[in-house]
Amino acid sequence: MVRAPCCEKMGLKKGAWGPEEDQILVSYIQQHGHGNWRALPEKAGLLRCGKSCRLRWTNYLKPDIKRGNFSIKEEETIINLHEMLGNRWSAIAARLPGRTDNEIKNVWHTLLKKKLKPYHNKSSQDSKRHSIISNSKYDPKVLENSYLSTTKDDVTSSQQSGSSSEISSLTNSPIEKMTTKNEKMDYSSENSLHINESFWSADDVNCLNKKSKAKVQSRPPLNAMETVGVDSKIDDSMDFWYNLFISAGEMPEF
DNA sequence: AAGCTGTTCAACCGCCGACCT
DNA sequence: CAGGTCGGCGGTTGAACAGCT
Predict the structure, then answer these.
(1) Could you tell me the distance in Å between the CA of residue A164 and the C1' of nucleotide B10?
(2) CA distance linking residue A29 with residue A148, whole number of Å
(3) I want to staple A93 with a disulfide (CB 3.0 to 4.6 A). Which of A49, A101, A203, A253 is the partner?
């Protein structure tokens, strides 16, 4: 079976998205939800393939995306999770609220890989840590299943069932709070966000690095989250995961 | 100021699994 | 069960930018 390419129609636009396209996409999703991605561009009046629309939305336009530099804690979390999960960017992203897999992948390939080079060769303690983690007892799958399975779905189901004490103990976690907040977002409401001059808060722009600032200022404002509030929640959630690792009692203390 | 090189990151591509008919 | 569609994922690319000479 040979699969037809996603953008087989001629005349579909490729490359960087313009402000008008962003506006159209955001407005459409706010009003109708994304529904079928493939059908969306035609309905919304965009000369893009559905895949491109989905990517643009999930990686850039979605209201709960946190932009700007990664905090030290976030970087450490990525390093630790990468060590356990490998290049499973979406799984890592699921544990970093407001960050996309694409963004994490980029950060890994640009920043963290370099930072890790000296780190990996640094000390015997590090080698010990690596050997412990690569030991079958710390099989990524096992680790993930044991300690990291508190995905959005799990939290949601635990909220519904309320049966597992283990899971229910997580319901007050920052992650849960974030998830709940995100799930409650209603893109079709009249309170939903519109791209205009006030879309970016000053904090949004200030927290960006120099390069991003330049880009952002030449683009429509996009971020939707109240950055200050989200920052504190993300810090909390990092603590949550660290504590979870440690309290599991089997993880070596890094 | 101009040219070159390295870095960043948004976007694309191809593949895969889940689901539907 | 086969064939087709769809959403999602990870790898890769290339334009834009920063920094250096």
Answers:
(1) 41
(2) 31
(3) A101
The distance (Å) linking the CA of A52 with the C1' of B11 is 8
Contacts of A44 by beta carbon, 8 Å cutoff, 6+ apart: A24, A25, A27, A28, A53
Please choose, from the candidates A6, A223, A5, the residue with its C-alpha nearest in 3D space to the C-alpha of residue A100: A223
Nearest residue for C8, CA–C1': A90
Tokens of A186: 């209603």
Instruction: Tell me which residues have their CB below 7 A from strand C.
Output: A 1, 3-4, 15-16, 35-39, 50-51, 54, 58, 87-91, 101-102, 105-106, 109, 210-211, 214-215, 218
Q: Which nucleotide is nearest to A3 (CA to C1')?
A: C4
- Cα separation, A203 vs A27, whole angstroms: 24
Q: Which nucleotide is nearest to A86 (CA to C1')?
A: C10
The alpha carbon of A251 is separated from its chain's Cα centroid by a whole number of angstroms, namely 25
pLDDT in tens, chain A (254 residues): 333 444 545 578 888 999 999 999 999 998 888 888 989 998 999 999 999 999 999 999 988 888 788 888 888 899 889 888 888 999 999 989 889 999 999 999 887 766 665 544 443 333 333 333 333 333 444 444 444 433 333 333 333 333 233 223 333 333 333 332 233 233 333 333 444 444 444 444 444 443 444 444 333 333 333 333 333 444 444 444 444 444 444 343 33
Amino acid at A17: W
Q: Cα(A65)–Cα(A73) distance, rounded to whole angstroms?
A: 17
Question: CA A160, C1' B1: Å apart?
Answer: 66
Question: From the CA of A125, how many Å to the C1' of B14?
Answer: 40
